[in-house]
Amino acid sequence: MDxxxxxxxxxxxxxxxxxxxxxxxxIDYGAFHTFPVLLDKALAGRRDELSGVxxxxxxxxxxxxxxxCDPSREHFFYNTWHCSAYERKLVExxxxxxxxxxxxxxxxxxxHYLTVNVAxxxxxxxDKHGYFNLSCTAGACGGLVxxxxxxxxxxxxxxxxxxxxxxxxxxxxxxxYIVEGEHGPLAEVPPAPATEEDIAIAGHIMPYITDGATLxxxxxxxxxxxxxxxxxxxxxxxxxxxxxxxxxxxxxAKAGKLTNRKKTYHTGRGLFGLATGTQELxxxxxxxxxxxxxxxxxxxxxxxxxxxxxxxSINACVSVDMLGQISSETSGLRQISGTGGQLDFMSGAxxxxxxxxxxxxxxxxxxxxGTVYSRIEPYFREGDVITAPRSQAHFIxxxxxxxxxxxxxxxxxAEMLISIAHPDFRGMLEQEAEKMGIWRPSNKx
Length: 445
Description:
The protein is an alpha/beta fold. The chain folds into two domains: about 10-180, Glutaconate Coenzyme A-transferase (3-Layer(aba) Sandwich); about 195-445, 3-Layer(aba) Sandwich (Glutaconate Coenzyme A-transferase), CATH 3.40.1080. It has 16 helices and 25 strands.
């Protein structure tokens, strides 16, 4: 069929398309690369005509004009599911609110609880069958598209086309308006510089990865370093089942390590929900039939994750207390990121046959005044959000080693965690553990 006539009929300027927004509406922007730059700018242009418009975003690294143009938030009230570095600054400026969630529940929130008056998001140009592709963040967009009263697609010709099983495309018949305009190259996230701590942490995790393991890697320096170490190792036939497809997986594929042959869930296919990295990564995922974009309620489902034998989950955190509680999204009252899929993959990996869940962090951090603090704390401060409860804690890793807290009592946990804390803080932690009644000085013998 020829959809060109329908395409032309629905084609509008950004300014025309955003005329559908009314006072008090709920607007949803696409996540990361699907953020609609042209529509956002046009909506900001209507600031003085509108009031009480609520906007939800997700991991948006770009300047959000509708938020920036209205610091008082009288006209536009911006919220995010997961803070990017840019959105974190908006939160600190009082111009953004965080929405707590588990990523596996994101689409269910839309389906059962939320109102979406207008969805605005970027997509590829349509194919000959009339389908737009939601590209790198398809896994996070299905719910808002299905719930929206009005869907506006902003066409970005630079986005890769991802293969998938469901939810990665939207048909032109389900789109109300189409917007075109100039877009620059996709924002790249280059490999993070390797630190000595990252190299040491990766080295402590490497012995636990076996041939045929399926990997979930988070974002940042550690996954990139670990990917490089695996690429240089003798490991083979690794698989990918991950919320985020990053540069590390490209390194594994180029080294011939990522074959997905031994995966026990969707054998032969690398599965992911979101993708971000270099242009080379975007070129790799473009029309790649060996990779499959999957909705987050599937990719992050602990039961489905557990169907991958030897599932290895590796994520980062902000701090851990001596009881084994894990904080990965705040520092005190300061919002840093979000829960994302960390708890999903921790839960799924540990019930996988041969699976393991790792939480990694540097042993210390330095504040802006130059004061050094331990990331292993006696107990959390007021305002710290617990991302994973102590009952879910398994492997904790710093540059000083890896310990497995599963099945361990409070005094055993204290000993183990102190053993991988920075040496300068171990004495203090021992004293605090003794005050807490969780210290048995057997490791001093």
